[in-house]
Design brief:
Helix content: 40-55%
GO molecular function, one term: oxidoreductase activity, acting on NAD(P)H, quinone or similar compound as acceptor
Strand order of the largest sheet: 2-1-3-4-5
Radius of gyration: 18 Å
Protein name: FMN dependent NADH:quinone oxidoreductase
Shape: globular
EC number: 1.6.5.-, 1.7.1.17
Largest sheet: 5 strands, parallel
Enzyme class: oxidoreductase
Keywords: Flavoprotein, FMN, NAD, Oxidoreductase
Structural class: alpha/beta
Strand content: 5-15%
Distance between the termini: 11 Å
CATH architecture: 3-Layer(aba) Sandwich
CATH topology: Rossmann fold
């Protein structure tokens, strides 16, 4: 049975997080199609990873048979996280926009799993082609033609990192204007916010169903 890697990075609980709600919709549909499958779950807010340090970084560039015990210990977490990604048949990532980019917890995860010569910057990445759905929620609107288009550093960054550096097959689901119901200044955008939210849930469910069918074939 297929394995799903599910990553959330929102600071907020599911009832207050658009990204968590939509990744949950994806996972629910995936599990409905594969009730006997495996889900590897990482909540990077509840269980944050340490930032990459010099030893762990150096270990990633050192051949396994040349690592000292100290380097082996420093590399252990990176190996665990990369192995989870390598085991996954599909990935869903919640990536809310904080201060115009991804949460630092998600950046820490990326720093650990981007391993030159293995998952990244390799002739053949060990995770090349793995279908990955990113739920890139944001409180405002940052799409083409909007006043804050140039402030969008979530999709732009993740396209380069996930699709190009890691060779994953990436798609985005983008719930926008998520703060419209809590920010009085956005009161006239509530209808658009609700429509974006509904569309995001529909897209997430559809993508999960499509991917699940691919692995059932």
């Amino acid at each position: 049975m297929p394995t799903l890697l599910h990553i959330d990075s929102s600071l907020f609980p599911a009832d207050a997080s658009a990204s968590r709600a939509v990744t949950a919709t994806f996972r629910k549909e995936w599990e409905a199609q594969h009730p006997g499958g495996t889900v590897i779950y990482r909540d990077l807010a509840a269980d944050p990873l340490p930032h990459l340090d010099a030893l762990a970084a150096a270990a990633g560039f050192t051949p396994a048979d040349q690592r000292t015990p100290e380097l082996d210990a420093a590399f252990a977490l990176r190996d665990t996280l990369a192995s989870e990604l390598e085991r996954a048949d599909a990935v869903v990532i919640g990536a809310p926009m904080y201060n115009f980019t991804i949460p630092s917890s998600l950046k820490a995860w990326l720093d650990h799993v981007i391993i030159a010569g293995r998952t990244a910057l390799a002739e053949t990445s060990t995770i090349a082609g793995t279908p990955t759905v990113v739920v890139a929620s944001r409180g405002g609107g940052y799409g083409p033609g909007t006043p804050r288009e140039s402030f969008e550093f979530v999709i732009n960054y993740l396209e380069k990192t996930l699709a190009e550096a890691l060779s994953l097959d990436v798609e985005f689901v983008v719930p926008e204007l998520t703060m419209a119901r809590t920010n009085p200044a956005m009161a006239d955008l509530v209808e658009l916010s609700d429509a974006s939210k509904a569309k995001a849930h529909e897209e997430a469910a559809a993508k999960a169903k499509t991917l699940a069918a691919r692995f059932a074939a």
